[in-house]
Design brief:
Radius of gyration: 28 Å
Shape: elongated
CATH class of the largest domain: Alpha Beta
Number of helices: 7
Order of helices and strands: HEHEHHEHEEHH
Structural class: alpha+beta
Largest sheet: 5 strands, antiparallel
CATH topology of the largest domain: Alpha-Beta Plaits
Strand content: 15-25%
CATH architecture of the largest domain: 2-Layer Sandwich
Distance between the termini: 110 Å
Length: 174
């Protein structure tokens, strides 16, 4: 028989798993309490919740939230980073913390929407540029063919103008 406390924890975890934009599972073995608190503080600044979870309760919450595939990743000491902002920002914050502090924290995997991510996928997300930069790159890519077309179409007109200018100078010289 589950206790009321465990039922409340499972419900809370289920809401977190279902409500976040991205969740990243980490193995926090080797981190001290001070390092965990520093990590929570740094992630909290980026609107990311970092929770140490009990495996059995996390697996129940994941199944209840419809994320059965992710429940298989839950083994060993697990903490989950729940991101609510831009999807790559959570991965960036974790990888930046790991590289800056040379931490023993290891990324096990994650998810967003209905997509399960491996540790390599999370690392790939971390190197993506921001949304604004991606939009600027797409717009620049869309603009460059149009600019090229305008230059090609304007070329004959420029040539005619050059011939006319040369003729005007020639006539003024007589």
């Amino acid at each position: 028989m589950p206790t009321q406390k465990k039922v409340d924890i499972v419900e809370n975890l289920q809401e977190l798993f279902a409500g976040c934009n991205i969740g990243i599972l980490t193995d926090y073995r080797g981190l001290t309490t001070t390092e965990l608190n520093n990590l929570r503080r740094k992630l909290g600044e980026a609107d990311i919740k970092y929770r140490v979870v009990k495996n059995s309760l996390a697996q129940i919450a994941l199944r209840n939230a419809g994320k059965e595939e992710l429940a298989e990743m839950v083994s060993g000491p697990i903490a989950v980073a729940f991101g609510y902002g831009e999807i790559p920002e959570t991965a960036k914050a974790l990888t930046e913390y790991i590289t800056a502090t040379k931490s023993a924290l290891a990324i096990k995997g994650g998810y967003f929407s209905d997509t399960v991510l491996s540790a390599k996928d999370v690392s790939a997300l971390a190197i993506l540029p921001s949304k604004e930069i991606l939009i600027a790159q797409v717009l620049a890519g869309m603009q460059s063919p149009i600019t090229g077309l305008v230059n090609v179409l304007a070329g004959p007109i420029r040539n005619v103008m050059g011939v006319l200018q040369a003729r005007i100078k020639q006539l003024e010289g007589q």
